[in-house]
Amino acid sequence: MAGHSKWANIKHKKAATDAKRGKIWTRLIKEITVAARLGGADPNANPRLRLAIDKAADANMPKDNVNRAVQRGSGGLEGANYEEIRYEGYGINGAAIIVDCMTDNRVRTVAEVRHAFNKYGGNMGTEGSVAFLFKHCGQFFFAPGTDEDKLMEVALDAGAEDVIADEEGGFEVICDPYEFSNVKEKLEAAGLKAEVAEVVMKPATETVFTGEDAQKMQKLLDAIENLDDVQEVYTNAVIEE
Fold first, then answer.
1. Cα(7)–Cα(63) distance, rounded to whole angstroms?
2. pLDDT 10s per residue in the chain (241 long)?
3. Rounded distance, CA 231 to CA 102, Å?
4. Does the pTM exceed 0.90?
5. What are the Cα distances from residue 200, in Å, to 70, 111, 178, 234?
6. How far apart are CA 19 and CA 160, in angstroms?
7. Is the dihedral of CA 40, 46, 48, 49 positive or negative?
8. DSSP 194
9. E-only strand ranges, 69-110
10. SS3 126
11. What is the Cα–Cα distance from 51 to 49, expressed in whole angstroms?
């Protein structure tokens, strides 16, 4: 994929995230609640919870909201009991899509996800139908102008798997998902702040969409992302602006 399209998509994603802050908070509260339930209330001993709390801080979520979600998950407060579900499917021209959900009503969620796929030209697949096209990993994007030698040294010393330069002069750092918090902490301690830092399902290959197909694919992705029970959407489609 060309460097221009990568950075355009990163900026587009950040802008879209900022525009949906209220929804982002709702999703983070679910993630914190489930992470605390599964791994305990101590973020130092629960990497998933630590990551969710870091994301909440980046999204300017009040600490009281975070603490209540942790208490709810660890049994201190009553609340909805969410379960995690992953759906897989195909978009325009067979593009692969993974949809991660948290729900208190599995029947409602699968109906809503299937409806979104069908309405906007996609279709749901079976479990495992597209997941093999993605890698579960930590991913950091650094803007063009970042000191390559410093980034390479710090990232690899911290346990990153790879540092990849793109055509525009930016860099992508990949790490094991369970090393994400450690790598992030060491990068930031060295003054290296990523534009985007997430644990993701990274596609092995990408397909660029332009023109009418790009518009159709974006409508499908937006419809899925706007569902209340959807936490994350991953795709190997790259939408050119």
1. 31
2. 334 456 666 666 666 655 565 678 888 999 999 999 999 999 989 988 988 998 898 888 889 999 999 998 888 666 667 889 999 999 999 999 999 999 999 999 999 999 999 999 999 999 999 999 999 999 999 998 999 999 999 999 999 999 999 888 899 999 999 899 899 999 999 999 998 898 999 999 999 999 999 999 999 999 999 999 999 999 999 987 6
3. 7
4. no
5. 23, 25, 12, 8
6. 31
7. positive
8. -
9. 83-90, 96-103
10. coil
11. 5
Tokens of 135: 């890698």
SS3 141: strand
Q: Which long-range contacts (CB under 8 A, 24 or more apart) does 178-185 make?
A: 178/47, 179/138, 180/47, 180/51, 180/138, 181/47, 181/50, 181/51, 181/54, 182/158, 183/138, 183/140, 183/155, 183/158, 183/159, 184/54, 184/138, 184/140
Residue 128 tokens, joined: 């495992």
Q: Are 28 and 55 in contact (CB under 8 A)?
A: yes
Q: What are the two backbone dihedrals, phi and then psi, of residue 128, each rounded to the nearest 5 degrees?
A: 90, 0
Domains and their CATH numbers in the chain: 3-73 (1.10.10.200)
Are the CB atoms for 41 and 73 separated by under 8 Å?
A: yes
Q: What is the token pair recorded at 233?
A: 């959407």
